[in-house]
Write a structure and sequence with these properties.
It contains nine helices and 13 strands. By secondary structure, the protein is an alpha+beta fold. The chain has a domain of about 230 residues. β3, α3 and β4 form a beta-alpha-beta unit. The strands form two sheets. The protein has an eight-stranded mixed sheet. Bound molecules: aspartic acid.
């Protein structure tokens, strides 16, 4: 029995989910309940500002949430662009369990959640609003865009760091100090969660508010099956976090699982995915990506493009945050294309 989640804040999310794995209710699928619970924890935590409530809004000041859940190619669900419901993975689970479809998007995804009796919620926290207003005051540069016209009259500097700290001291994650190398990637803190339960069932969930100040309508890798998450019970599972546009171009999570299908270990699969990103794109200093991979026996590994990523683990030996076993570009000063 094991739950693994992206980033250090995953420690708290894993803990919230652990009971679902070790004390399952009759007839439940504990691994599925666990990933839903872990993502729901992150959604509700206002201090995790790239997921759920507290997530930073798009360039118009409106939060939108994306997420997906997966047990197998035949059992997966996804939503993108929720603006009125807090828990994308829970809505995605309803899509998986109660419709013949895989993915719902936009206002109709919110409508579906309403029809399922799921309550509406305010998604923009006061802190996220304050950060958005500060961003506007500082010029309102659209994050990760390559087109100044997307922020008319506001200028453009794709390498400019975005201050998303709300003036806090970083004491937000795991009940302790966030390591400085991880703090720099706070704009990449999607939760991707993989769980294996006592019956060997593998499940995955992924929840995000996407990139901060994104172009309205933008959807990244996180809710797309095969990009932010992929689970094949015959092989294993993978989830991703980081710059969605890099992950989507290589079908990241699917790639990692396919590597395992051909015999790779979780580490070799995660390494292949980040190495593929490093060799495919002209990289910029704000680019980060990480893959968390679990084999069907519950063994796992992670790899990141740059330093600062951590995996949170919960199993019978307790809770811990572990460094990725492979970092493609260990030198943080390297920003150019890599071979
Ligand atoms: N992968 C997410 C997205 O692109 C964001 C992140 O993990 O930073 O929407």
């Amino acid at each position: 029995m094991r739950i693994v989640s992206t980033w250090s804040f995953g420690l708290r999310a894993n803990e919230a989910a652990w009971q679902k794995v070790i004390e399952p209710s009759p007839g439940s699928t504990p691994a599925l309940d666990a990933v839903e619970a872990a993502c729901a924890y992150a959604d509700a935590a206002a201090d995790i500002d790239s997921v759920g409530y507290g997530g930073l809004p798009d360039a118009t000041g409106r939060v939108s949430l994306d997420g997906c859940v997966m047990l197998s190619p035949a059992r997966c669900g996804s939503v993108a662009g929720l603006r009125r419901h807090l828990h994308p993975v829970s809505v995605a689970r309803r899509v998986m369990e109660r419709t013949a479809h895989v993915m719902l998007v936009g206002p109709d995804a919110d409508l579906f959640a309403n029809q399922q009796g799921m309550g509406e919620a305010e998604l923009l926290s006061p802190e996220a609003r304050a950060t958005y207003e500060k961003w506007l005051r500082e010029g309102g540069v659209v994050d990760q865009s390559r087109d100044a016209s997307l922020a008319p009259g506001l200028g453009f500097d794709p390498l400019r760091p975005i201050d998303r700290r709300h003036g806090s001291d970083g004491r937000l994650f795991g009940g302790g100090e966030l390591p400085p190398d991880e703090a720099q990637w706070r704009h990449h803190d999607t939760i991707g969660c993989l769980a294996i339960d006592g019956t060997g069932v593998l499940a995955g969930g992924c929840s995000t508010s996407g990139t901060p100040f994104k172009v309205p309508g933008r959807v990244g890798d996180s809710p797309i099956i095969g990009h932010g998450l992929y689970v094949d019970p015959a092989v294993g599972a993978a989830t991703a976090t980081g710059t969605g546009e890099l992950i989507m171009g290589i079908c990241g999570a699917f790639l990692a699982v396919e590597c395992m299908r051909r015999g790779a270990s979780p580490l070799d699969a995660a390494r292949e995915a980040v190495a593929r990103i490093a060799s495919t794109y002209p990289l910029e200093s704000h680019h980060q990506a990480a893959f968390l991979v679990m084999a069907r026996d519950g063994s796992f590994a992670s790899a990141s493009l740059r330093p600062g990523y951590r995996t949170s683990v919960r199993d019978a030996s307790g809770a811990r945050a572990v460094e990725p076993e492979f970092v493609a570009i260990p030198d943080p000063s390297v920003t150019g294309p890599t071979a």
